[in-house]
Amino acid sequence: MKLNWAELLVVNNPLRVFEQRFEIGWMKKHARIPPGGSFLEIGCGRGAGASIIREEFSPECICATDLDPMMMRRAVRYLPGEERRGIHFCAADALRLPLPDGAFDAVFGFGVLHHIPDWQGALSEIARVLKQGGTYFLEELYPTLYQNFITRHILLHPEENRFGALDLKEALKGADLSVQASLEVPFVGILAVLEKKS
Ligand SMILES: C[S@@+](CC[C@H](N)C(=O)[O-])C[C@H]1O[C@@H](n2cnc3c(N)ncnc32)[C@H](O)[C@@H]1O
After folding, report:
1. Domain-located, residue 58
2. What is the Å distance from ligand 1's center to 35 Cα?
3. CATH number of the CATH domain containing 107
4. What total of structural domains would you count in the chain?
5. pLDDT score for 11
6. How confident is the model at residue 50 (pLDDT cuts 50, 70, 90)?
7. Whose alpha carbon is nearest atom 14 of ligand 1?
8. Ligand 1 centroid, distance to 53 Cα (angstroms)
9. Closest atom of ligand 1 relative to the 44 alpha carbon
10. Is pTM beyond 0.85 here?
């Protein structure tokens, strides 16, 4: 689901960049990923995360995807010329990634799953495109934050098939993604580093 005006404000501002720097720094501390390798980001928005991922992990290339082609255009404006080196932007639905099985050493998703009605389907796609032993870096929010009595009137999210902490952990296990490290704020959200087992 595309973002409404309020959510566009939430993600396209300097505070969000600061928050993602902290989160990606935390993820790096909890993952063993050698430099090089192929990375994927789903729901990359305007590309601020992809740029920080490149700085922190030095992958060979990052494929940064988003459902919304407008976000891809924003990303090209946000990361001009050299700042885009090694980052390939492409519009794609996380439910149907036009990418081969086992192609990536790491997949990143910041605040994306809770925008997808069939978020379990997106988890299967993530597991499909990850190599065995590959890493999934996740940042997610719970409906108690984004669909409470105030936020439900401002933000726009799917209403059906929402997930809380337990549903998410169960679905991750079902997709063969095992938690290596997590940082959770109850009723708010979670950061996690997961490994694809088989
Ligand atoms: C809350 S924004 C997060 C953007 C960016 N990752 C960040 O953290 O600032 C969620 C993003 O997911 C994208 N999105 C929503 N549904 C999607 C889907 N099915 N496949 C891929 N991207 C999707 C939206 O267009 C939006 O850019």
Report:
1. yes
2. 26
3. 3.40.50.150
4. 1
5. 80
6. very high
7. 43
8. 16
9. 6
10. yes
Q: Is residue 100 part of a domain?
A: yes
Tokens for 151, please give them.
């936020």
Query: What is the structure's pLDDT at 34?
Result: 85
How many angstroms separate the alpha carbon of residue 6 from the centre of ligand 1? 14
Structure confidence at residue 10 as a pLDDT band (50, 70, 90):
confident
Sheet holding 130-141, edge to edge: 87-91, 61-66, 38-42, 104-110, 130-141, 189-196, 177-185
User: pLDDT of 96-155, one tens digit each?
Assistant: 999 999 999 999 999 999 999 999 999 999 999 999 999 999 999 999 999 999 888 888
Percentages of the chain per state (helix, strand, coil), in multiples of 5: 40, 25, 35
What range does the domain containing 101 cover?
A: 5-29+43-196
Amino acid at 153: H
Task: For ligand 1, atom 9, name the residue with the nearest CA.
Answer: 11
